[in-house]
Structure formats: structure tokens, C-alpha cells
Design goal:
It is a single chain. The chain is mostly helical. It folds into two domains: about 1-145, Ribonuclease III domain (Ribonuclease iii, N-terminal Endonuclease Domain, Chain A), CATH 1.10.1520; about 155-220, Double Stranded RNA Binding Domain (2-Layer Sandwich), CATH 3.30.160. Helices cover about 60% and strands about 10% of the residues. The chain has ten helices and three strands; from the N terminus they run H-H-H-H-H-H-H-H-H-E-E-E-H. It has helices spanning about 1-10, 15-20, 35-60, 65-75, 75-85, 100-105, 105-125, 130-145, 155-165, 205-220, and strands at about 170-175, 185-190, 195-200. The protein is globular.
Amino acid sequence: MLEKLQDILGHTFTDEALLEQALRHASTTEQRTKSNERLEFLGDRVLGLVIAETLYAQFPGEEEGELARRFAGLTSRDALARVADTIDLVDFARTQPVDAETLARGHASVASDTLEAVLGALYLDGGFDISAAFVQSHWDALINEDLTPPKDAKTALQEWAQARALGLPKYEILSREGPDHAPTFTIRVAVKGRGAENGRGASRRSAEQEAATALLAQLESAK
């Protein structure tokens, strides 16, 4: 199984234990340092550096804010999950057995976290060039998907509120349900005097984005 994944990654590991750890979700061990969380931390930084350098070179006419919006989209959980799905990475991950509904709800979280951990393992075993080559190969389509700098819903809602001197939108966690490795967050966002909406997601960030999207739609329809 590891051989197949190494073929997909384009790198044969000298230390296969690193790859095994990258696939080990925290739900499968009581020792969190034995899980993939430390590698996930490292992989997140590797991804960030490669994407930042790529954007700097590829869009020389864009200002910092435009580059930052691209960066946020390309390093988001959704982007990571999309890339992970192109190589069926979750099929290789070691997670605690759960029912189909819970697995589906937490899929993006497991997929993105595992991919970051694998990037960390690639960096430690093969060096920066190996990990960078993987990122550049698998993120190229996302980078070129839309040449207009993206603006996420939270940013758009914040700018909408500030343009009307309404202050920053306020986010509140209403609930957190499910197991640690596949939680569901319910978030409420409100803009002073203009309304509020709820959002649900497998992470706090995704729930906030869903809530912001819903409130923006409400505000647009009220025009």
C-alpha cells in the first residue's frame, strides 16, 4: 500500500516510518506526538512557502493584498481537500472507524490534514525540492483556475460592514458536535443592526465561511 502511494507522490522514501506517521490520524493513538499532527504543522509551513514563492513569481503585477487573497484560497482546507482527492489520499489514511455519515462529514478535514502531514514527510525525507515539486505539480491547475484574485466570504462581509461603518462582523460558536476527528461546528455571524445567519462545517473556519456566505446573500437580497 505504501509503495502505491509513493508512486503517486513521485518519491521513494528512505524512511518509510515518516510516511506511515503522516497517514496516522490522532484518533488512532493516545500519544498525539505519534500521530501525524507534528508533520501536519511542518507541512503547512512548507506549503505556505512554496505557494507564496510561486505566486510572487507568477503574478508580478499584483499588490500584496491581491497575492494574500490568492494565498488564502490556495492554502485553504477546501483547496487541500481537492488536491488530496485527486490522489485518493484518504484511502491510505489510518483513522478511527466511524459510520458513513460521520466519515463523509469529516472527509475534508481528514483529507486536508493528511495532505499537510504528507508534505511534511516529503520535506523531511526528500528535502525542499521534492516537496516543492509535488506542490507545484498538484496546485498548478488551482492557481490557473481563476486569474482574478479571489475574495472569500468572510473578507467580503468584513469589507461590506466596514464600508458602512458598522464595525466588524461578530462570530460566535453555537455548538461543536461529533468526535474529535470528525467534528461539526455551528457558527453564528452577525453585523450590527443588519441581521445574522448561521453556518455549519467540519471546521470552525468552514462554518464561519458558510455563515458569512449566508449573511451576504441575505444582505444582497435586502437591497
